[in-house]
């Protein structure tokens, strides 16, 4: 097998096999079929890149077809947004089509199916139909309307079409097999009554086709050769083929459905329903809020189309579901912006710095490189004078040994400028530093070639001159959720995992070269991260969005939390061995503080479960987490796991474990009743005074 063949993903291999078996290359046709009931998100980007990528690879047409069969949820706004997103991602379509274009044809095929005994009108309630349909382990049974006459079905269906019946009174069902092992084949719905205004057909229709019926037939009308969808539609393939069987003409191309694994990304939600909830409840500021995983949100945040396409290329096309780390998407973005974004200076938490030996009336324009990764980017001039802003965190009055920024008596370089030395500070009445006074070495200017300019110093700081600085609003965006799987926890609302620090709005100062920036322009604020100009900016007020930091702060935070939990477990051992009561209390307070500081819900849950074993210290750790973490409640642990924890803890030889288990049971009324007998038996044999006091207080 050649190197090229080895690099093919499985969909490409299927297409190559089709061509090898005689399928005409000029008959290849693909489509991207979004439902216009929301904005596209990063998950759709994978499907977009796949379908349009196949079109480019095989020089085949790719249709944009809107599956607009549900007027209750679809709007023209979504159609327009989807088209804008596709264009921005760099793709164009052969034809813009709509399932609503085919409503008349779909209706006529449905009538033909009724005449052929393959469809019937059912007048049961949705609840009765669900019961009649059976379960995955129990076959369905024929409903009372399954054997209506063809004439009666035709008359009812016509009346449904004419609007003579209310919503929910009748549906059209395919007549297939109520005993099929595939629940989807048990007489699925084809049409329902909806007296709703459609964004394209207006009030022409009172009945609308179901997705499973319309989708495959639309593929057939458009002569799509390879209908590519995600894995949740595997069970739908049998139904897809059955509907095609009813209309297929051997002289035409028959579409075939193939499924690939959709994109699952941690620290976000991909459900359109949940994204819509965030918008409708004003938790975010619209579909294009820069914290949203929507294409429009990512674009506004400052993501590039190239970085999203690269991300989709890296994750590839596979058949197995997996979860991709959000950090990979950010990595692709940094790689792209590193090559293209000009470097500029901005100060977001300013403190005044005065160069006392720099002439008060002097002003210089220093040369600064725009992007060291791009030789063609050239240089710009930045003003320099006696009074500057630097970042407050870049100065410590008394600094530790490994502090490589400015402090009293130490030297640092100002980027593109001079070496300065901290001399003294000015403080206000409360003791807060308001000014830092420094001196500079006049011979140390960057790029001058002097001996002083080549002197090595501890660090380099960015800055802006106070006289020339432009005030800007800076929106510091972060991930919207603090948990890696916010919508995967049973009995937990995904909104419980909202990141309270996902947006901070501050006032910053930027260098004067940014005075005329336009919305969408991207920059690297040196030492701070990548930022882009928000669309809300005006001539009088520039607004920057933080796109991504220079480093992966979340990966660092995740590792810190994992390390903190591991180190805390070691502290448990110290706590258990410590004989002196005050020292033990200090260790315990430190352990509790560490537990409370952990935000990662999934990590905490995993740690609790992992430490339910025949080990006193491990059981102590799990009970402490359960008692002191504000991220995890008793109800978040499954019943079997919790029972195991209580059972083992009450039998523990360590009194501290027994105490914690009893205290946890006190607030867990459901399990307290289950363990009442065990607690009563423990009371009879318990020797530890504190445990006995607790048990006595329980009055069992």
From TrEMBL:
<dbReference type="Pfam" id="PF00749">
    <property type="entry name" value="tRNA-synt_1c"/>
</dbReference>
<dbReference type="InterPro" id="IPR022861">
    <property type="entry name" value="Gln_tRNA_ligase_bac"/>
</dbReference>
<feature type="binding site">
    <location>
        <begin position="35"/>
        <end position="37"/>
    </location>
    <ligand>
        <name>ATP</name>
    </ligand>
</feature>
<dbReference type="InterPro" id="IPR014729">
    <property type="entry name" value="Rossmann-like_a/b/a_fold"/>
</dbReference>
<feature type="binding site">
    <location>
        <begin position="262"/>
        <end position="263"/>
    </location>
    <ligand>
        <name>ATP</name>
    </ligand>
</feature>
<keyword id="KW-0030">Aminoacyl-tRNA synthetase</keyword>
<dbReference type="InterPro" id="IPR001412">
    <property type="entry name" value="aa-tRNA-synth_I_CS"/>
</dbReference>
<dbReference type="InterPro" id="IPR020059">
    <property type="entry name" value="Glu/Gln-tRNA-synth_Ib_codon-bd"/>
</dbReference>
<dbReference type="GO" id="GO:0016874">
    <property type="term" value="F:ligase activity"/>
</dbReference>
<feature type="binding site">
    <location>
        <position position="211"/>
    </location>
    <ligand>
        <name>L-glutamine</name>
    </ligand>
</feature>
<keyword id="KW-0648">Protein biosynthesis</keyword>
<dbReference type="InterPro" id="IPR020056">
    <property type="entry name" value="Rbsml_bL25/Gln-tRNA_synth_N"/>
</dbReference>
<dbReference type="Pfam" id="PF03950">
    <property type="entry name" value="tRNA-synt_1c_C"/>
</dbReference>
<feature type="binding site">
    <location>
        <begin position="41"/>
        <end position="47"/>
    </location>
    <ligand>
        <name>ATP</name>
    </ligand>
</feature>
<dbReference type="InterPro" id="IPR050132">
    <property type="entry name" value="Gln/Glu-tRNA_Ligase"/>
</dbReference>
<keyword id="KW-0067">ATP-binding</keyword>
<dbReference type="InterPro" id="IPR004514">
    <property type="entry name" value="Gln-tRNA-synth"/>
</dbReference>
<feature type="domain" description="Glutamyl/glutaminyl-tRNA synthetase class Ib anti-codon binding">
    <location>
        <begin position="341"/>
        <end position="441"/>
    </location>
</feature>
<feature type="binding site">
    <location>
        <position position="230"/>
    </location>
    <ligand>
        <name>ATP</name>
    </ligand>
</feature>
<dbReference type="InterPro" id="IPR020058">
    <property type="entry name" value="Glu/Gln-tRNA-synth_Ib_cat-dom"/>
</dbReference>
<dbReference type="InterPro" id="IPR000924">
    <property type="entry name" value="Glu/Gln-tRNA-synth"/>
</dbReference>
<feature type="short sequence motif" description="'KMSKS' region">
    <location>
        <begin position="269"/>
        <end position="273"/>
    </location>
</feature>
<keyword id="KW-0963">Cytoplasm</keyword>
<feature type="binding site">
    <location>
        <begin position="270"/>
        <end position="272"/>
    </location>
    <ligand>
        <name>ATP</name>
    </ligand>
</feature>
<comment type="similarity">
    <text>Belongs to the class-I aminoacyl-tRNA synthetase family.</text>
</comment>
<keyword id="KW-0436">Ligase</keyword>
<feature type="domain" description="tRNA synthetases class I (E and Q) anti-codon binding">
    <location>
        <begin position="460"/>
        <end position="534"/>
    </location>
</feature>
<dbReference type="Pfam" id="PF20974">
    <property type="entry name" value="tRNA-synt_1c_C2"/>
</dbReference>
<dbReference type="InterPro" id="IPR011035">
    <property type="entry name" value="Ribosomal_bL25/Gln-tRNA_synth"/>
</dbReference>
<dbReference type="InterPro" id="IPR049437">
    <property type="entry name" value="tRNA-synt_1c_C2"/>
</dbReference>
<protein>
    <recommendedName>
        <fullName>Glutamine--tRNA ligase</fullName>
        <ecNumber>6.1.1.18</ecNumber>
    </recommendedName>
</protein>
<feature type="binding site">
    <location>
        <position position="67"/>
    </location>
    <ligand>
        <name>L-glutamine</name>
    </ligand>
</feature>
<keyword id="KW-0547">Nucleotide-binding</keyword>
<feature type="short sequence motif" description="'HIGH' region">
    <location>
        <begin position="34"/>
        <end position="44"/>
    </location>
</feature>
<feature type="domain" description="Glutamyl/glutaminyl-tRNA synthetase class Ib catalytic">
    <location>
        <begin position="27"/>
        <end position="338"/>
    </location>
</feature>
<comment type="subunit">
    <text>Monomer.</text>
</comment>
């Amino acid at each position: 097998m050649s190197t090229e063949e080895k690099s093919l993903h499985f969909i490409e291999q299927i297409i190559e096999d089709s061509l090898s078996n005689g399928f005409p290359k000029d008959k290849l046709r693909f489509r991207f079929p979004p439902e216009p009931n929301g904005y596209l998100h990063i998950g759709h980007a994978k499907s977009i890149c796949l379908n349009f990528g196949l079109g480019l690879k095989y020089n085949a047409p790719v249709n944009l077809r809107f599956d607009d069969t549900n007027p209750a949820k679809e709007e023209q706004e979504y159609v327009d947004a989807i088209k804008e997103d596709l264009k921005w991602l760099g793709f164009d379509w052969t034809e813009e089509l709509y399932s609503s274009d085919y409503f008349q044809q779909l209706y006529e095929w449905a009538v033909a199916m009724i005449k052929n005994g393959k469809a019937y009108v059912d007048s049961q309630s949705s609840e009765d139909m669900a019961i009649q349909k059976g379960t995955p382990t129990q076959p369905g049974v024929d409903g009372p309307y399954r054997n209506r006459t063809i004439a009666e079905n035709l008359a009812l269906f016509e009346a449904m079409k004419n609007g003579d019946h209310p919503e929910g009174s009748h549906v059209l069902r395919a007549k297939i097999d109520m005993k099929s092992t595939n629940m989807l084949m048990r007489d699925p719905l084809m049409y329902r009554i909806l007296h709703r205004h459609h964004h394209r057909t207006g009030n022409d229709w009172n009945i609308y086709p179901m997705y499973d019926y319309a989708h495959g037939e639309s593929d057939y009308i458009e002569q799509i050769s390879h209908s590519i969808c995600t894995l949740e539609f595997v069970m739908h393939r049998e139904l897809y083929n059955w509907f095609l069987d009813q209309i297929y003409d051997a002289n035409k191309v028959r579409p075939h459905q193939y499924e690939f694994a959709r994109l699952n990304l941690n620290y976000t939600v991909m459900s359109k329903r949940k994204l819509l909830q965030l918008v409708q409840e004003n938790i975010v500021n619209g579909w294009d809020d820069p914290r949203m995983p929507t294409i429009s949100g990512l674009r506004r945040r400052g993501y590039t189309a190239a970085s999203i396409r690269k991300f989709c290329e890296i994750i590839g096309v596979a058949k197995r579901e997996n979860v991709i780390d959000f950090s990979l998407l950010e990595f692709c973005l940094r790689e792209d912006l590193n090559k293209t974004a000009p470097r500029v200076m901005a100060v977001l938490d300013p403190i005044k710095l005065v160069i006392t030996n720099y002439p008060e009336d002097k002003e210089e324009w220093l040369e600064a490189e725009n992007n060291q990764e791009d030789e063609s980017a050239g240089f710009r001039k930045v003003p320099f004078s006696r009074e500057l802003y630097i970042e407050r965190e870049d100065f410590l009055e008394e600094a530790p040994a490994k502090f490589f920024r400015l402090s009293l008596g130490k030297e640092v370089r100002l980027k593109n400028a001079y070496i300065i030395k901290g001399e003294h500070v000015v403080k206000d009445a409360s003791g807060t530093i308001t000014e830092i006074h420094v001196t500079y070495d006049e011979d140390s200017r960057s790029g001058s070639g002097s001996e002083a300019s080549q002197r090595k110093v501890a660090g380099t700081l960015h800055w802006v001159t106070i006289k020339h600085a432009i005030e800007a609003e800076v929106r510091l965006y972060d991930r919207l959720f603090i948990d890696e799987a916010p919508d995967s926890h049973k009995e937990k609302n995904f909104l419980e995992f909202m990141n309270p620090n996902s947006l901070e709005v501050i006032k910053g100062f930027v260098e004067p070269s940014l005075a005329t920036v336009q919305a969408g322009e991207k920059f690297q604020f040196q030492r701070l991260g990548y930022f882009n100009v928000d669309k809300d900016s005006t001539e009088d007020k520039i607004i920057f969005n933080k796109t991504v930091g220079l480093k992966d702060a979340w990966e660092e935070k995740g590792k810190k939390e994992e390390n903190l939990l591991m180190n805390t477990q070691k502290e448990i051992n110290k706590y258990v061995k410590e004989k002196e009561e005050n020292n033990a209390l200090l260790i315990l307070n430190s352990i509790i503080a560490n537990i409370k500081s952990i935000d990662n819900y999934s990590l905490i849950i995993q740690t609790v479960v992992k430490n339910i074993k025949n080990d006193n210290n491990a059981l102590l750790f799990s009970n402490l987490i359960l008692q002191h973490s504000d991220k995890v409640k008793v109800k978040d642990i499954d019943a079997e796991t919790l029972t195991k924890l209580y059972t083992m803890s009450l039998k523990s030889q360590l009194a501290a474990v027994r105490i914690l288990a009893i205290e946890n049971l006190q607030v867990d009324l459901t399990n307290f009743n289950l363990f009442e007998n065990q607690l009563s038996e423990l009371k009879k044999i318990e020797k530890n005074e504190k445990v006995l006091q607790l048990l006595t207080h329980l009055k069992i």
